[in-house]
Design goal:
By secondary structure, the protein is α+β, with helices and mostly antiparallel strands. It folds into two domains: 113 residues, no CATH class; 80 residues, PH-domain like (Roll), CATH 2.30.29.30. It is 55% helix and 17% strand. It has six helices and seven strands. A four-stranded antiparallel beta sheet has the order 1-2-3-4, with helices on one face. A hairpin with a 3-residue loop joins strand 3 and strand 4. The N and C termini lie far apart (47 Å). The model has no long low-confidence stretch (mean pLDDT 84).
Length: 212
């Protein structure tokens, strides 16, 4: 089973338990304890598939290429924010006084999953930048590739690389999030030179200064 199947499976599980829980409001097939156990079983399967989806990306970490851990504050903030939102929804549902409160368990499961996935990504270094022969691979919330041939200009200011593509999209690499800064600077500079990627004159000077 690959990441795509795991993603489809977990989403189908989530939709199924939401529909089942909502339908139970009207038809009362299960009492509260029975519904709770069903939600928990579906929730465990959802967490398992979510973790598998993330861990399946770990094979990229073992490929024989230069890889640098890149765990940004924005990624942490996004995951924590999503978890907080679902916890808030859970509290609102639980205190609503209506039968809708039985959905609060689903919200808690989603919040817990967000935090578990964040922890796995941090512990396994699954957020990274890999340097290949002619492209860079960014692995954060999703995989992104930047080919040298797509780059219009590279700027380097305040310890931040700006890769401006020909379609005007910009990707950033902030050195503050990279532990092996010196090694990364050498590697990215070699990659730029090897691919003849366009760099502004001012940025060339700043990169040379940073390499000293």
């Amino acid at each position: 089973m690959n990441s795509a199947l795991a993603s489809i499976g977990k989403n189908l599980l989530l939709v199924a338990i939401v529909i089942l829980s909502a339908a139970n409001f009207f038809y009362r097939w299960f009492n509260w304890h029975e519904l709770l156990w069903i939600q928990l079983l579906f929730g465990i399967a959802y967490i398992f598939l979510s973790c598998y989806e993330v861990l399946n990306a770990s094979y990229k970490a073992s490929l024989p290429v230069q890889r640098f851990s890149y765990f940004t504050f924005s990624l942490i903030a996004l995951r924590v924010l999503k978890a907080s939102i679902f916890v808030t929804f859970a509290l609102m549902l639980y205190t609503s006084g209506s039968r809708a409160k039985y959905l609060y368990v689903i919200c808690l499961i989603i919040a817990l999953t967000e935090l578990i996935v964040l922890l796995i990504k941090y512990k396994r270094h699954l957020c990274f930048i890999s340097i290949y022969a002619n492209y860079l691979l960014f692995a954060e919330n999703r995989l992104k590739r930047i080919f040298a041939s797509e780059i219009e200009i590279i700027e380097f200011r305040h310890d931040i690389f700006y890769f401006v593509k020909k379609d005007r999209k910009t990707f950033q690499i902030k050195l503050v999030h990279i532990k092996e800064k010196a090694t990364f600077l050498v590697a990215i500079n070699d990659w730029i030179n090897r691919n003849n990627a366009p760099v502004s004159e001012e940025s060339k000077e700043k990169i040379e200064e940073a390499l000293i």
